[in-house]
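F.,

This is the one I mentioned.
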């Protein structure tokens, strides 16, 4: 049983609490300054508290607050050297957090799919941390990256779900315009994205080869792909990712001032 505390019960903190609860093998303490924040996670947390001192005995303390709140929390958070402080604040480097605590600091960029244990996460650490590795595995898939790549992972898997929601919505909306029921269109679009993503994860083939596998000569798919290939949609999607990465870098600069 891993004792975990989550500081901040907003969208990401709540997703982590829910996912870890569903995974089992965790004793979860949820902390927030606002008691109303506990309503959405009360059934998943073993304990809720507004007293920061209640989290200090946990094996892993997750700092799930907005970047500008991080310094305020760290001022009052006292952790021993045998604790792990896992920070998920976008743009806040490991060094910035480590300078304010005796705990071992691990930086993770997760996403909201932690709630359903389908999270994509990037982690940076000085050396592998067994507790954190177990948590990330129970919540989905993770990769280990160097600290200087955290800005791009923030854009890719942190902001990425919003980009996917946008594309999914565009496909569903056009299907509705073509006559499909709205709920049916959303179900088919969502399951199509889910199935395609699972295929990529399980296949040894690259994305281009998988596209070719769906495209029969003279068929329907290649007709649609010709529209995409002739457009600049790949550049637009790439620009969206780059904009998110640049904002993450800006947040890092602000946090270090």
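My design for it:
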């Amino acid at each position: 049983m891993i004792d975990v505390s989550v500081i901040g019960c907003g969208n990401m903190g709540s997703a982590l609490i829910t996912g870890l609860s569903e995974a089992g093998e965790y004793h979860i303490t949820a902390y927030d300054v606002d008691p109303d924040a506990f309503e959405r996670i009360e059934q998943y947390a073993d304990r809720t508290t507004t007293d920061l001192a209640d989290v200090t005995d946990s094996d892993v303390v997750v700092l799930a607050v907005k970047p500008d709140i991080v310094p305020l929390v760290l001022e009052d958070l006292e952790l021993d050297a045998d604790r792990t402080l896992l920070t998920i604040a976008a743009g806040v480097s490991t060094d910035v957090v480590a300078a304010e605590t005796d705990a071992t600091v691990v930086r993770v960029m997760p996403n909201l799919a932690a709630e359903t244990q389908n999270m994509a996460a990037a982690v940076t650490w000085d050396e592998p941390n067994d507790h954190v590795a177990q948590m990330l595995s129970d919540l989905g898939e993770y990769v280990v990256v160097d600290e200087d790549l955290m800005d791009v992972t923030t854009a890719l898997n942190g902001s990425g779900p919003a980009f996917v929601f946008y594309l999914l919505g565009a496909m569903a909306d056009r299907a509705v315009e073509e006559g499909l029921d709205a709920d049916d269109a959303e179900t088919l679009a969502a399951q199509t994205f889910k199935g395609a993503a699972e295929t990529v994860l399980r296949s040894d083939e690259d994305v281009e080869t998988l596209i070719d596998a769906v495209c029969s000569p003279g068929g329907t798919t290649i007709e649609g792909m010709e529209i995409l290939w002739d457009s600049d949609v790949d550049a637009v999607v790439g620009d969206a990712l780059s904009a998110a990465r640049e904002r993450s870098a800006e947040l890092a600069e602000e946090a270090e001032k």
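The chain has two domains: 2-148, 160-246.

Talk soon.
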